[in-house]
Amino acid sequence: MPFNAVQFCKDYHIPYKLQGKNVSSGWIGVQCPFCRDKSNHGGINQENGNYSCWKCGFDDMAVYIQYVTGKTFQEALQIKRTYTNNFNVHYYENKTNCITKIELPGEELQQMHKNYLIGRGFNPDYIRNKYKIKGTGITGYWRYRIIIPIFHNEEIISFVGRDITDRQSEKYLILSKKEGVINPKHTLYGLEFCRNRNWVCIVEGVFDVWRMGDGFCASMGTNLTEQQIHLLLPYRHVVIMFDPEKEASEKARKAAEHIASYGNTVELLLMNGDKDPGDLSQEEAVKLRKELGL
């Protein structure tokens, strides 16, 4: 339904633009508070009330409202509903091109891809069906890789290619920022499987998510961006379970302190030994979830 973005901005004293260099048709331009933007790269869609920043990729309207108004998350949701109604929206044309859809390389998994997953203790058919992965052939830039799409709001915004030979110089290749819809570090891998919960557990990588299951999402590394942290704020209980290396543990502590500063309950889990969550057997993962009550 239409969102009265202009009235919302007027009521909360938010500067806005109806047209200009960075303002697309159907949007109003605002400065993004998450990347300290000065040129109206942020935008509010007047047709559906979505928020997005063309510069940093952050795109959660409720968190945006929470941030600019100082209200609680629940109050922000109510504010969004208040300005959602029926009214006429006038669009301004903008010729700026942007990537809105990504075609994944690769085809169905071949036996070599399945053997790799089996060797790591995963069920290839289950992983393929749930996470929509593909496999590439023996030639080309993405050769000998499992292609792992990254979703945000049910749309593919980027993807990662994991080498199945362990012989290539780069184990992981990620689509460049220019070719993706938004920066993967502005979302959380697997977040779509963490809905309708009051807790979420953050791990480092996609294989950790695959092993630990629903309720776990990956930050794609040990550094959590401000955009990723804001995606966690709706969850009352946030658990961080990074890899056991010293540097990862230190980054996890810093992230825990940052998230806790917003008032969330944060629990830090330090892995024993030298196994990453993704290196656990399925039986070990199930046992760990039970022990943690997740």
Which key terms come to mind for this protein?
28% helix, 11 strands, four-stranded parallel β-sheet, DNA Primase, Chain A, Dna Topoisomerase Vi A Subunit, Chain: A, domain 2, alpha/beta, 294 residues, DNA primase DNAg catalytic core, N-terminal domain, four-stranded antiparallel β-sheet
Order of helices and strands: HEEEHHHHEEEEEHEHEHEH
Query: What is the count of helical runs?
Result: 9
Number of domains: 3
Q: Give the class-level CATH name of the largest domain.
A: Alpha Beta
- CATH architecture label name of the largest domain: 3-Layer(aba) Sandwich
Describe the main β-sheet briefly: 4 strands, antiparallel
- Please compute the radius of gyration using only Cα atoms: 21 Å
Structural class: alpha/beta
- Kindly report the spatial arrangement of strands forming the biggest sheet: 4-5-6-7
Overall description:
By secondary structure, this protein is α/β, with parallel strands linked by helices. The protein has three domains: 78 residues, DNA Primase, Chain A; 72 residues, DNA primase, catalytic core, N-terminal domain (DNA primase DNAg catalytic core, N-terminal domain, Alpha-Beta Complex); 102 residues, Dna Topoisomerase Vi A Subunit, Chain: A, domain 2, CATH 3.40.1360. It contains nine helices and eleven strands. The strands form three sheets. Strands 4-5-6-7 form a four-stranded antiparallel sheet, with no helix packed on it. β10, α8 and β11 form a beta-alpha-beta unit. The longest helix is centred in the last third of the chain and has 15 residues. The protein is globular.
